[in-house]
Write a structure and sequence with these properties.
- The protein has one domain (about 5-140).
- Helices cover about 40% and strands about 15% of the residues.
- It is built from six helices and six strands, in the order H-E-E-E-H-E-E-E-H-H-H-H.
- It has a four-stranded antiparallel β-sheet. It has a two-stranded antiparallel sheet with strand order 1-3.
- Helix 2 (about 50-60) packs across helix 3.
- The two termini are about 20 Å apart.
- The model has no long low-confidence stretch (mean pLDDT about 85).
Length: about 140
């Protein structure tokens, strides 16, 4: 699969918008009171956080939309033509990777222990974003497993 979003683009955007990075959420509003039905349409938009998969979709120009009821909703990427796909599936497609590779990249619990430890010990959003970018390098550039 030919990637539409490169590892380098993902790293650059994640570091540039480290204050909006959180590996624990596909995407969400920082205020949970405002979380139902939200739309994130661009990087740097005030009041949201997104993970590596969410960032991948934002790089491609997709909007991130929460669909479903409170506590039951999930996040979807909506492209410029209005096509909607779960953020995980869309990020897999955009990065040109397999679902197995994506699980290793997007799910912190599946990261190698050294990365998990560094992430959990990080004291700032920038440090956490840097660790996540090291994971991107490990899986997508260096071919780690």
């Amino acid at each position: 699969m030919q990637p539409q979003v490169t590892a380098e683009q993902l790293i650059e955007a994640t570091l540039k918008h480290a204050e909006n990075f959180d590996i624990e959420f596909w995407a969400r509003k920082e205020s949970l009171d405002d979380d139902d039905g939200f739309v994130v349409s661009k990087f740097g938009e005030c009041g949201y956080v997104a993970c590596l998969a969410g960032n991948t979709c934002l790089i491609a120009g997709d909007k991130l939309v929460r669909k479903g009821g409170e506590g039951e909703g999930d996040v979807y990427a909506v492209d410029g033509d209005g096509n909607s796909e779960h953020v995980f599936d869309r990020a897999v497609e955009l990065l040109g990777i397999s679902e197995e590779e994506a699980r290793g990249l997007f799910r912190k619990q599946d990261w190698p222990n050294g990365f998990k430890r560094r992430y959990n010990e990080s004291e700032s959003n920038l440090e956490r974003a840097e660790v996540a970018c090291d994971v991107v390098k490990y899986f997508l550039v260096e071919g780690g497993e």
